[in-house]
Design a protein that fits this description.
Blueprint lengths: L1 E8 L2 E8 L9 H4 L5 E8 L2 E8 L7 H4 L10 H5 L5 E7 L1
Antiparallel strand pairs: 1-2, 2-5, 3-4
C-alpha cells in the first residue's frame, strides 16, 4: 500500500509517498529529515497493524515550505537514507 502525503496548489504539486510494503520501520529516515517532518506511525495493511514512517500531521499541509531546504534536483535526504526504497519525493513546481 502506498500512502501519499502532500498537496497540489497554484504553485505546483508537492508529494511524499511511502510504500508500506517496502518500509521495514528501521526509522533511519526520521533523523535524516532536516525539517523534522517524519515520524514512525502505524497503518493497517494486509489485515494487521504495521509500523511505518509517515509525515507528522502538523507537517502535512506545509511540505512545500518544510522540504524546501532539500535538494529536489536529486534525491531528498529521506529518500537517500531509505535502503529499501520505500520513500519517494515528487515536486512539480509551476
Amino acid at each position: 500500500m502506498i500512502t501519499h502525503y502532500g498537496y497540489k496548489d497554484g504553485s505546483g504539486e508537492y508529494f511524499l509517498a511511502v510504500d508500506s510494503g517496502k518500509c521495514d520501520a528501521c526509522g533511519k529516515c526520521v533523523p535524516a529529515c532536516p525539517a523534522g517532518a517524519l515520524e514512525m506511525t502505524t497503518v493497517f495493511a494486509d489485515l494487521e497493524d504495521k509500523p511505518v514512517v509517515g509525515v507528522k500531521e502538523s507537517s502535512r499541509k506545509s511540505l512545500r515550505d518544510l522540504c524546501s531546504s532539500c535538494d529536489h534536483s536529486g534525491k531528498a535526504p529521506c529518500e537517500v537514507s531509505c535502503l529499501r526504497f520505500a520513500i519517494k519525493v515528487a515536486w512539480n513546481r509551476q
